Amino acid sequence: MPKVAVYDITGAKTGELELNDSVFGVEVNEAVLHQAVVMQLASQRLGTASTKTRGLVRGGGRKPWKQKGTGRARAGSTRSPIWVGGGTTFGPQPRSYAFRMPRKQRRLAIKSALTAKLQDGELVVVDSIAFDAPKTKNVINMLSGFDAANKKSLIITGEVVENVEKSARNIPGVKAIPASSSLNVYDLLYHDKVFVTKEAITRIEEVLA
Q1: How far from chain centre, in Å, is Cα 60?
Q2: Sequence-separated contacts (24+) of 96-104 with Cβ below 8 Å
C-alpha cells in the first residue's frame, strides 16, 4: 500500500497515512480517462443550436413562376434550400449531447485520475480543512503553506463544508468540492494540486475500494 505524508493546513507534516492500493495504486487507463472527460463535458453542452428547415422559414407559399414556358428551372417555393433566404438542409436542431458510461468504467476513471495525481506528486493529504468563517484569505494562506498560491488547486472535503467552499470560490483556479457527491475526473485532471482531507480519503475508499 502506498504511504503518503499527512499535513495540517499550515503545511507542517503531522504523520503518515496508508492508502488503499485498489484505489490509489491502479494502472492508469488513459482511454477511460478520456472517455470520462468527454462524457462530463458533453453533458454540460446546452444543445440549443437550431436552424430552420424550408417548412419553418417565413414566406414562399406562392409558386415563383409557372411550371412551363419560361425557360427557367421549375420552382415551387422561394424558400427551397437552394435559394438564398431558403431553409437549411440537415442543420442542427435542439438536442442533448449527454451519454452515459458503465459504472465500472466511471469508477475506474476516478481511480486512474487519483493514481495519476499521486504518482505525479500532486496529491496532498491534509488532516482536516475547516474555517471559523468564510474568508478568502484563509484559503490563500493554506495554499501559500504548500507553495500552491499561484496554482490551480482542488480542495476535496468529506462532506459539504460551507465555509471552505465560500472561501475558495472567489479565487480564480481554486475549487472546493465534497467527496460524498461531487468527486469527478475532470476536476481532478484540470487542477495542478489536489488537497484531500483524511475524511475524504476514507469516503473515497469506502465507495471505490
Answers
A1: 45
A2: 96/47, 97/42, 97/43, 97/45, 97/47, 98/39, 98/42, 98/43, 98/45, 99/39, 99/42, 99/43, 100/39, 101/35, 101/36, 101/39
CB count in 10 Å sphere of residue 12:
9
> If phi over 0 gives left and psi between -120 and 50 gives alpha, with beta otherwise, what is residue 112?
alpha
Cell of 59: 414566406
Q: Which of 32, 25, 19, 21 is nearest to 119 (CA)?
A: 25
pLDDT digits (tens, 9 = 90+) for 65-91: 999 999 999 999 999 999 999 999 999
Rounded CA separation 69/61 (Å): 21
pTM comes to 0.85
